[in-house]
Design goal:
The protein is mainly beta. Strands 1, 4, 5, 6, 7, 8, 9, 10 and 11 form a nine-stranded antiparallel beta sheet that branches. The chain is about 0% helix and about 60% strand.
Length: about 160
């Protein structure tokens, strides 16, 4: 069993749409996503190659989205595979595939503003997670794990 924490970033382009979020005539353009995320995870291996894991990533501070304050988080439950032929004492590749959700939590100064926003106070969407990461061992139980993850969330807008 292992537990880890870390940080990373999320990137996605904007579709460029404009919304009158509060029905007051002010148009807000949907921004592109460039966010700093914290991460916490755990995993359990059944043998040296196959295991399961869970990850939680969240933005530590609120951001502005079309005039709204929001905080996204992502979680997933993954199957993990580490190919034995590519592993050495100090290097171990890891591949993940899993299911989870993306959650966006909105904050409002004015409780009446919430009535104008679909999905208020939060919005949760099904998510597919794919990941690849090398574990680079510094000592027996201490490693770096630079990862590349793809998160597909349908209808998250």
């Amino acid at each position: 069993m292992g537990v880890y924490s870390g940080f990373g970033s999320a990137h996605d382009s904007s579709n460029g749409t404009q919304s009158d979020t509060f029905s007051d005539g002010t148009l807000y353009r949907s921004p592109h996503l460039v966010e700093f995320f914290m991460q916490f995870g755990t995993n359990v291996f059944f043998n040296k190659q196959v295991g399961v894991g869970a990850e939680l990533s969240w933005r530590p501070s609120q951001g502005d989205y079309e005039g709204l304050q929001y905080r996204p988080s992502l979680y997933s439950f993954d199957a993990i595979f580490r190919p034995a032929k590519a592993s050495t004492k100090r290097f171990e590749p890891e591949f993940r595939v899993g299911l989870g959700a993306a959650r966006v939590r909105y904050s409002f100064d004015d409780p009446l503003a919430c009535d104008q926003v679909p999905g208020c106070l939060d919005s949760t969407h099904f998510r597919i997670h794919l990941g690849a990461a090398p574990r680079i061992y510094l000592k027996d139980h201490i490693f770096l794990r630079p990862a590349f993850d793809v998160h597909y969330v349908k209808s998250l807008f």
